[in-house]
Design goal:
This protein has 8 helices and 8 strands; from the N terminus they run βαββαββαββαβαααα. It has an 8-stranded antiparallel beta sheet with strand order 4-5-3-2-6-7-1-8, with helices on both faces. α5 runs antiparallel to α8, α6 packs across α7 and α7 crosses α8.
């Protein structure tokens, strides 16, 4: 059983309006589809984790989105929030899900809708189905195959929820010895490699670490009482 990691790019005119909101507004790094019922159906129910703050402008955009039927927001202490939404996908979104699933592939959560306009997702299935799915994506969607390999959920799940910038921050931290024992580099070194302020680098690392630690706790089996 194989996995393929894709980076999709949709033209702004066919992109979902809430993804376009993330692209156009500072302070929002991405939204991550965690769970969904009837994905690709005329009415789908979805749960997102939105890495952005404050929620009020996002809420106002939801009110204006024609595709959104119902929603609820729950804020988190780390300046992110969860979004429950009932939504009708666009024709392009419907055709994209149909192309991927008709080929016999399973979409693995989370699906990342990033601030750079790309959509990052992982598909799992028999190796011969990957090319079929890529060839049938709808017009207005370009596909970049990032990685292909033998499926192992332990390898994929932990890093999947990280934004590209958070991943770059973690990689820079490893390179400079930030996680070495004893520590060989600091936040200033990470910031220098990323070309950003130390406070920004620290925030990227904090959010990345929060995602990874939550995944570690979720994946560890609970001891029997």
């Amino acid at each position: 059983m194989k996995y393929v990691t894709l980076s999709l790019w949709m033209a702004p005119e066919v992109r979902h309006p809430m993804h376009q909101f993330v692209v156009e507004h500072d302070g929002y790094e991405g939204s991550y589809l965690l769970r969904g019922n009837d994905i690709g159906a005329d009415l789908q129910t979805l749960l997102f984790h939105v890495d952005g703050f404050p929620p009020e402008p996002y809420r106002a955009a939801l009110e204006q989105a024609d595709t959104v039927r119902e929603y609820a927001i729950s804020t988190c202490p780390d300046e992110t929030f969860y979004l429950y939404v009932q939504d009708s996908p666009s024709t392009t979104g419907h055709d994209l899900v149909d192309a991927l699933t008709r080929a016999g592939l399973v979409i693995v959560s989370p699906v990342a809708y990033r601030a750079d306009g790309t959509v990052g997702l992982t598909l799992v299935g028999p190796g011969g189905t990957v090319q079929q799915a890529v060839e049938t994506v709808p017009d207005g969607v370009s596909v970049d195959v990032r990685e292909v390999g033998e499926y192992d959920s332990r390898r994929l799940d932990t890093g999947a929820a990280l934004t590209d910038r958070q991943f770059e921050a973690v990689a820079a931290a490893v390179d400079c010895g930030y996680y070495a024992d004893p520590r060989e580099g600091g936040v200033d070194d990470v910031a220098a490699e990323l070309g950003c302020a130390p406070g920004t680098a620290a925030e990227h690392l904090r959010k990345a670490e929060a995602h990874v630690m939550a995944d570690v706790l979720e994946q560890r089996p609970t001891s029997a009482e």
